[in-house]
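Incident review: delayed structure delivery

Summary: a single-chain prediction request sat in the queue longer than the usual turnaround. Root cause was a stuck worker, restarted by the on-call engineer. No data loss occurred. The affected request and its eventual output are reproduced below so the record is complete for anyone auditing the incident later.

Affected input:
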Amino acid sequence: MALNSYQPAAADEDFVACPFFMPEQRFESDWPFPQRLPLGAGWAGTCTAPGHEGARPSDEELKSGCNLGYANTCSRLPAERHADAVRFALGEERDGILHVLFVCERDYLPAGHGELLYETASTSWLQPHDDPRVQRMAECYLQAQRARRGNLFPADEIAAAAASSSQESAAAGK
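Output delivered after worker restart:
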């Protein structure tokens, strides 16, 4: 079997988010393991597929396609597309900079990848993604990871303590 013809069996598939999904808010449902979803939790939002911008997927569509990617049965999924799914992973955090890695997949193969940089002290993106959908997915993924893992980034705690100390010093000096 050629490497480029591999397609995993249904039980073998990883879950990744649909590249045309624009998540907006957490979507609580009967997910068996919501922390294992591609964005770290279930999300509700809108479709951004050409000709369907702003469409609100049903709860079933959110559960079977938008949050999972590879939604070949979705009537809004365009035939010509750059990717079928987007996958995220946390990279290293060094000097208060968190590396968020992403891969876009097409036909179960890499179709693009990169690294986004998030500054934990200022809670801002130093290097965001050019595509607002992928950027929003990265934000949701990071939000879910932080909620699940507690204070994931020690720099946040240091920055909060420093800000608190500065405010106390300023108040005492008045």
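Verification: Residues 12-166 form one domain.
Action items: add queue-age alerting; document worker restart procedure.
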